[in-house]
Specification:
By secondary structure, the chain is α/β, with parallel strands linked by helices. The chain has ten helices and ten strands. α1 packs parallel to α3 and α5 packs across α6.
Length: about 240
């Protein structure tokens, strides 16, 4: 579908989209040249009303996304350039999590640093039993930059999030599931199939209801009291 993609693979089938970060030579790292490709795919996903779910995964069976491509990121030699890259990736991850359809991460391998931030931008995560997770930014003297910090806090709570970000502790899949970082752990060979099966289960339902529920979860999160009541009533009435 996208013949010009060099770092990503994209396909669609039966209302389900599959996006693969395909840079095995650099452990599926995201570089400066990967970001515009991701934006291009998101442009399409945001304007494809027939789709019901997106699955995001990495090429191979060792790494989901290893984070930023440090060789490419060495070009960021000023405060302005580093901040611009952070803004760009935060916006891309916000667009990913804000899609009108549910986003399922098929976490086929390790998710370190920025890779863990990409995983957390997915709505749900199905992980390989061999996958590991870590916010390792602190170990090389930097901080999270791709929007994963608030998502981690929402998932695991402030104190656990601080511990993970301040130590760079590596979690195995079982521990990641125990603390709520992932939703399901399966054998390595079954990760993509399990994520696609979940996507098909979602896509079997009316697309309008799937999108309405995703909107309820995204847009209704910060509402309370009368505003929350009116938001849900309006959402239900539109679906009805």
């Amino acid at each position: 579908m996208f013949e010009d993609l060099k770092h990503l693979r994209y396909s669609e089938s039966d209302r389900i989209a599959l996006l693969t970060v395909d840079r095995p030579a650099v452990h599926n790292a995201i570089g400066l040249s990967t970001m515009p490709e991701l934006a291009h795919v998101l442009d399409h996903l945001e304007t494809s009303p027939e789709l019901s779910a997106l699955v995001v995964t990495g090429a191979g069976d060792k790494t989901f996304v290893s984070g930023g491509d440090l060789k490419e990121l060495e070009q960021l030699t000023t405060h302005q350039a580093a901040a611009a890259m952070s803004r760009q990736m935060q916006n891309l991850m916000a667009r990913l999590s804000g899609l009108a359809i549910p986003v399922i991460g098929a976490i086929n391998g390790d998710s370190f640093g920025g890779g863990c931030e990409v995983a957390l931008a997915c709505d749900m995560r199905v992980a390989s039993s061999r996958a590991r997770f870590a916010f390792k930014q602190v170990t090389i003297g930097i901080t999270p930059a791709w929007g994963g910090r608030p998502r981690l806090i929402d998932l695991v709570g402030r104190s656990t999030a601080l511990r993970l970000m301040l130590t760079g502790e590596v979690l195995d899949a079982a521990e990641a599931m125990r603390i709520g970082l992932v939703d399901r752990v399966v054998e390595p060979h079954a990760v993509l199939d399990a994520a696609l099966a979940l996507a098909r289960q979602i896509a079997a339902n009316p697309n309008s209801a799937v999108r309405a529920i995703k909107r309820q979860v995204n847009d209704g999160a910060g509402l309370w009291g009368e505003a929350a009541i009116e938001f849900e009533a309006d959402s239900f009435a539109r679906a009805w």
